[in-house]
Amino acid sequence: MSFIADLKTKRILIIGAGTTGKSVARFLESIDANFLIVDEKIQNLDGIEVFDSVPDDILFDLAVVSPGWRKDHQIIMNLLSKGIEVISELDFAWMLKSELNPEQKWLALTGTNGKTTTVQMLESILISAGVSGIACGNVGTTVVEAVTSENKFKVLALELSSFQIAWSSLPEYSAVAILNIAEDHIDWHGSFTEYADAKLKLLSQSTVAILNLGDPEVVLRSASWNGRKIFFGLATPQPGEIGLVEELLIDRVFVNSADSAEVIAELTDVRPAVPHNVSNAMAAAGLALSIGIAHPLVKAGIASFTLDKHRLETILSKDGINWINDSKATNPHAASAALLSHLSNIWIAGGLAKGAKMDELIQRTSSRIKAAIIIGKDGELIATALSKHAPEVQLHRITGTNGAEELMDQVVSCALEIASAGDTVLLAPACASMDQFASYAERGNLFKASVSRLVGK
Q1: Residue 410 — pLDDT band, cuts 50, 70, 90?
Q2: In the CATH hierarchy, which fold is given to the domain comprising 10-83?
Q3: CA dihedral angle for residue 290, residue 295, residue 298, residue 299, rounded to 10 degrees
Q4: Number of Cβ within a 10 Å radius of residue 315
Q5: Beta-carbon neighbour count of residue 292 at 10 Å?
Q6: Dist. CA 196–CA 218, nearest whole Å
Q7: Selecting from 3.40.1190.10, 3.60.20.10, 3.30.870.10, 3.40.50.720, what CATH number does the domain 92-303 have?
Q8: CA nearest 238: which of 255, 221, 216?
Q9: What Pfam families does UniProt report for this protein, alphabetically (predicted)?
Q10: Which of 13, 231, 285, 421 is the most exposed place for a label (fewest CB within 10 A)?
């Protein structure tokens, strides 16, 4: 019996009623499968009742879990103790793909930062090359939606979080990329080692990996892996590497001989051409080249790509001051890249630190920080690190007790008072947003609205 036909005979539990759970429910509904949804926060999903606990009187045959759920959650532990099979949405999608579109290629990438930009850049390359493909996973479209789409995509470009990788074991990727590994989601994984191990687990599911030569954690932790390693970096590339020569991104991997080289793109094709975004372009190019896309088409895809909202987004330039929205910088590593992209920052920082430490961030970037405006539940972690490692930096604390909109108005008013020509007012919080905002997108949008109203008038 096929996997899909077998699903119709099972009683299936969907764990999580968010975006992932919703896509699984939609598919199961389309094949008239018998399923129930459990979620501790959501009570209704498009008219379907959502339970806050697993009913004791129903024996399930299979559970499909959304990636944000920890493996030691009591619901998960109870299901496993009863011998019920628990699989991830990613593994579920792979089983569907194996039946619905077995020739479909999966390219996967992960990293602490830059995932969304890189996977969208890869999608842009696929489009330029005329390849039927889509970016999915931890960005926009879920993997189940992409696999079951009527478009029958030939290539999926998957952005994968550490949660998704930790839960998954079945997919076999044509190639994978690891952009960087830095402290993040320690509250979920329990330690940096567990977090890093989740990222590196991706290597066990491919024979080709595009790896960041400039990231020590990636280089050291991948050393024992025996697959084909393709390194990329910002220096002149050696044979078998992707790198930078003057104003050109150069490929010395997917070429006719060890002595050969091909131009991937010009620096001016990468916008903005800041170091971490050039690295993103190299990773996207490496994945595209690994499945045979020609160099001129890779160049065209990179040149036509524009950054997503809330990622180094220039809102306004006025009176010699640049106002930049990088609300998606939700951890120290991302904030560091943003701070180092500008010379003199009025830095807006704080929120939920997710267990991350801030000392290394401040030590690395203090010369670029003129003043810091501190917000959020864990803002004092940043303030303490600044006082310790960069006492010369001005500190301004904004509490904003009357809601998110007023908070951001106070932040922007404060920045306007202390910024002068040559400064960049940078929202790159190094923290998640959910203590004061609905999402990083709301945080960024409110920042943009306040800048428009108070500065752009």
Answers
A1: very high
A2: Rossmann fold (3.40.50)
A3: 150
A4: 20
A5: 9
A6: 9
A7: 3.40.1190.10
A8: 255
A9: Mur_ligase_C, Mur_ligase_M
A10: 421
**Domain segments of the chain: what residues?**
10-83, 92-303, 313-454
pTM for the full predicted model? 0.80
Q: Cα separations (Å) of 375 from 125, 370, 381, 395?
A: 38, 17, 11, 11
Residues near 428 by Cβ (< 8 Å), separated by ≥ 6?
A: 324, 326, 327, 329, 334, 335, 338, 339, 347, 348, 349
d(CA 302, CA 281): 7
Start-to-end Cα distance in the chain: 66
Given a contact cutoff of 8 angstroms between Cβ atoms, the answer to whether 327 and 441 are in contact is yes
Determine contact, residues 349/357, Cβ cutoff 8 Å: no
- How would you write the chain as a 3-class SS string? CCHHHHHCCCEEEEECCCHHHHHHHHHHHHCCCEEEEECCCCCEECCEEEECCCCCCCCCCEEEECCCCCCCCHHHHHHHHCCCEEEEHHHHHHHHHHHHCCCCEEEEEECCCCHHHHHHHHHHHHHHCCCCEEEEECCCCCHHHHHHCCCCCCEEEEECCHHHHHHCCCCCECEEEECCCCCCCHHHHCCHHHHHHHHHHHHHHECEEEEECCCHHHHHHCCCCCCEEEEECCCCCCCCEEEEECCEEEECCCCCCCCCCEEEEEHHHCCCCCHHHHHHHHHHHHHHHHCCCCHHHHHHHHHCCCCCCCCCEEEEEECCEEEEECCCCCCHHHHHHHHCCCCCEEEEECCECCCCCCHHHHHHHHHHEEEEEECCCCHHHHHHHHHHHCCCCEEEECCCCCCHHHHHHHHHHHHHHHCCCCCEEEECCCCECCCCCCCHHHHHHHHHHHHHHHCCC
| Strand 228-232, strand 44-45: pairing | unpaired
Q: Residue 399 has what pLDDT?
A: 87
For the stretch 95-135, pLDDT in tens is 999 999 999 999 999 998 889 999 999 999 999 999 999 99
Q: Are 443 and 429 in contact (CB under 8 A)?
A: yes
Q: Would you say residue 187 has pLDDT above 80?
A: no
Give the per-residue pLDDT at 47.
85
Structure tokens at 198: 């989740």
Topology annotation, domain 313-454: Protein-Tyrosine Phosphatase; Chain A (3.90.190)
Let me know how long the chain is: 457
